Amino acid sequence: MSAALYLLTGCVGVPEGVEPVKSFEISRYLGKWYEIARLDHSFERGLTQVTATYSEREDGGIRVVNEGYSMESGEWSRAEGKAFFVRGENTGFLKVSFFGPFYGSYIVFDLDPDYRYAMVSGPDKSYLWLLAREPAVEESIVERFVSEAKKRGFDTDQLILVDQTRRGQ
Q1: What is the pLDDT of residue 10?
Q2: What domains lie within the chain, and their CATH numbers?
Q3: Positions in the chain whose pLDDT score sits under 50
Q4: Which of 32, 62, 105, 161 has its Cβ near the most Cβ atoms within 10 Å?
């Protein structure tokens, strides 16, 4: 959930035209995901090699660890948060917090049947991510992501393709 700091707003809504996936299986979603594309926000600006890693928490929630490398500073950025289901464990709609009581929406609106990639929205149409299990995906997946996002009203002209090729020290 490379959506670390947007959660300051505390909004747990669903944007118009976005519907969380059903038959969601958190056990299959856990683990490491690579950010392939995103809409820009200050909390991720300039970051490459962005990943999100999910694991179970003892309280029934999900531990979220987002990491990215800043070429400008030469340093890694890391944020840790927690997520909880909003509409039950079989629906891809969670609320995520990196700042105490403030939560924001994390909506999986399209998911590969084999959990190889996921299309994710935040609480409004200024938050959008394409995540994948590998640092690169076929062009057809990116094209499908753009098409699906555009159909839902996201500004796909502003998408950033995330560089996953350079490795920071």
Answers
A1: 54
A2: 5-161 (2.40.128.20)
A3: 1-9, 168-169
A4: 105
Give the residue carrying structure tokens 């959990």: 115
Q: Answer whether 165's CB lies under 8 Å from 77's CB.
A: no
Please name the residue that has the structure tokens 């670390």.
4
On average, the pLDDT of the chain sits at 92
Here the tokens at position 110 are 């399209």
The pLDDT assigned to 42 comes to: 85
Beta strand 102-111 with 128-132 is: unpaired
CA of residue 30 relative to chain centroid, distance: 13
Tokens representing 92 are 């891809």
